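Appendix B. Extra example for self-study. Work through it before the problem class; the solution is given directly after the inputs so you can check yourself.
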Amino acid sequence: MNILLRGRAAKPIAFLLCLVPLALLAARVLLGALGANPVEAVTHFTGDWTLRFLLATLAITPARRLLEWPDLIRFRRMLGLWAFFYGTLHLATWVCLDKFFDPADMWADVTKRRFITMGMAGFALMVPLAITSTSGWIRRLGKRWRLLHRLAYLSAAAGVVHYWWLVKSDVRAPLLYGVVLATLLGARLMRRDVRPA
Amino acid sequence: MRIRLVENEPATTWNLTNPREYGFYSNVNPQVDHPRWSQASERRLGEFFKRKTLMFNGYGEQVAGMYGGMDLKKFH
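Solution. Structure tokens for the complete assembly:
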């Protein structure tokens, strides 16, 4: 399996797979299959996929060790950037379709509603990560790059809390994301504990 | 089956699971925000752009009397 991950076709295939949610969304838009509240449907769809890609990105490190597929690392940046892509779509849906670019309305939403504040924080944390994702930035930042990119943990946590705070009372879906995130972060702590002194 | 007229508002799934959000008179006052969103504007079915939500959903003349004496900030 690890050999397959190393193949030349692996990255293009992964890229196309990451496009599948976008294609599904486009199909639903074109077919008018978004239900009674299309704007809400687009918002939820893009938000869900942002969280999924964030968690997939954070799953790479533990999965490499657990499955002994070190070459999974080749896909981490791509997954992270797709998380940023879907997060940008999510934010753009809110700005363009929900708020109609009304700055006062947007400001009121960000300051009054804690789940919007938290979502905004989660997105803002992704911005420096996307910018410094290039090889040039990795080289320039050296050791600090790893430190900076731990912000991904915070961003994912903000995403889960954002979802948690926005649901009415059924917290099952955000709880599931939260458990997955806690597991992925916990796997990192465990690793540290067993390391010989 | 029987019908009882009770003095206090009965407990329902809605007001039990999320008492913060369900005032009995909710959404007649666009000037008061719902805890999770603004009620100031709405998108009508089949329309793309939002419009300002009217007080009492536009039925002020007919129904405002029913809310007489109530504080529509508190009992939004």
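Self-check: Chain B has a mean pLDDT of 83. If your reasoning did not lead you there, revisit section 3.
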